[in-house]
Amino acid sequence: MIMPAIFAASTLGGYFSDVHGLSPAWSMGLAAVIHVIFMISLFGVIPLFFIWLERKVSARIQDRLGPTRVGGRFGWLQGLADGIKLIQKEDLVPDAADSMLFRLAPYLVCIASFTAFMVLPFADGWVAVGADIGLFVILAILSLEVFGIILAGYSSGSKWSLFGGVREAAQMVSYEIPLAICAIIPVIAVGSLNLGELSRVQSGWFYSNWLLFHDPFTFIGFFVYFTVATAGCKRAPFDLAEAESELVGGFHTEYSGMRWSFFFMGEYASMFLVSVLASILFLGGWNTGIGPLDDALVAGRASSAGAGGFVAASYLANVIGMVVILVKGSLLVFLQIWVRWTFPRLRIDQVMTTCLKYLVPMSCFLFLGALMWPVLLIQFTGRSTLFESSQSIGEKLRSSPGILSGDGVSDVDRSSDGDGESDGDRVFEAGLNDGAERRQSSTDVSSDADENRSVV
Amino acid sequence: MSQAALLFWLFAIATCGGALAVVISQNVVRMAFWLIVSLGSMSGLFFLLHADFVATTQLLVYVGGTVVLLIFGVMLTASGPYVQIKTSPAEGFLGAAVGVMLLVMLISTVTRVDWSRATRVSASVSGREFRAGPIHGFNKPQEGNTSRSIGMALLGARPDTDLGSDDGRMGTGYLLPFEIVSVHLLVVLIGAAYLARAKRRAGSASEG
Questions:
Q1: ipTM exceeding 0.90?
Q2: pLDDT of B124
Q3: Cβ–Cβ of B137/A404 closer than 8 Å?
Q4: Where a domain ends, among B69, B87, B105?
Q5: Does residue B92 lie in a domain region?
């Protein structure tokens, strides 16, 4: 029976090498191909769904109906019909365009937004590449999207495209700074760049565990992050690059057919990406936010770790987690669509002013505040968390199966022993929000190190 | 040919081919594109070496920062569309000769070093014993997930020599030079922005 066996292995590559006996290289290659096929399907279906959603939501906001004919009363298949129309359009390259770059630009946008899905977790362990620096990888790859836009604008050989491309490049590059700073704010609270880790520590009741409510700086940080992410995806009110009323079409004026649709596939995919990222960073990831339910799900996931054989509980818990994260991401995308059709467009100087004069100082201030928060909290209340009931994040990181606890699932509470082996732990815990007495011991260690360094 | 070797050849050919295309191509923006290809493939080579943090930094800083700056410079200072840079055959020959000589020098230097001794020598210079075993909480070298090791090394505790040793002594970290370089870069940035500001001409009408 294939179905139970596929869930016996903890990874897809493990399935191929253990159950079918393929060599490690072949099994990893096959697992990579399957992951790629999943991701490509996801990347194709997401824009289809969100384009339909956008048309319906914008229609209702504008007091009309939107697509109602293709595929039933709600126009479900309108996106597919549009795709078929676009595929059979004439593939033209303007005479004045630099043809190689003109053809390449849409693919650069798609590659950037598609590759970032590789480190995005959809449930505990359901991630293509579970990199320890997942957030950093996403930020780096999102910064590559600018190239497609710049090259599209420049190589089209038309002044509308050039203006759109230059404006868009300036906007996207400027908004990368507050995006990175705001994405780091929840990382400060948790201490890990691993997106899986960031979601795992947010299990439990939403008011005490979601990083949104961890401290006031992450609370405001979420809204700043969302604004900046909307701007980075060139969505209204920051969408001058495609401002139809001003620049004909901006950087995609000269594009038609499938090339044009690649730009928008990339845009909707990155909208979804930053929304899922926001829900992982701030809104609890794949956790439902209801205390007992989350505890049951975590127990279900842990029950199969390290054991062979098909365990339904873990798989079901992960399916629920995936549904939760998809719903949260879709709600945030709905919010972006709603904002687009509600607010007027900003001028380019207003866009740049907002970024450089308001959002950058705001995010720097929030970053500093998030850094000082544990110190202030300990000073004034002697506690390390805002709510009495919740575990401090340091404790949760140490007791959760992951790299910090060293070897897989272990519920053993690691206190600092006397032997030298836990030196790394002790110095490392100096940075974790662990409680007053532990901070005392860690300050002793760091002051010793200072003394030694001054002698040397 | 193993999977790693195949990927290595792919990335290496892309890096070197992209670099050659930068030199050979005559359209400035196409040069920038080939530079993207070359630097991106170099980041792939870093990923193959399991140095994931450095590879991501390469993508973020070089590809996402430096080349974007290059393209901006080209686009905003171009005297016309599709600026061409034409090299004469003499320049091409001279450049190729210098490049080949540099390549020969580099290859001969690299092949003469005994790389297996290098890590042990560097550890003994700092006076510590080289630990090849796994350290609790940190990955061995060459196993990826290097961000924690890099972070601790910035603070002065190198996972291969300082952590897990008996006396708990830490070396000088890299954090102070890193911060100094960052402030230096900030000064350079501010200076450049000041030098490139739009200067008001004397006697012109006041700006609205």
A1: no
A2: 56
A3: yes
A4: B87
A5: no
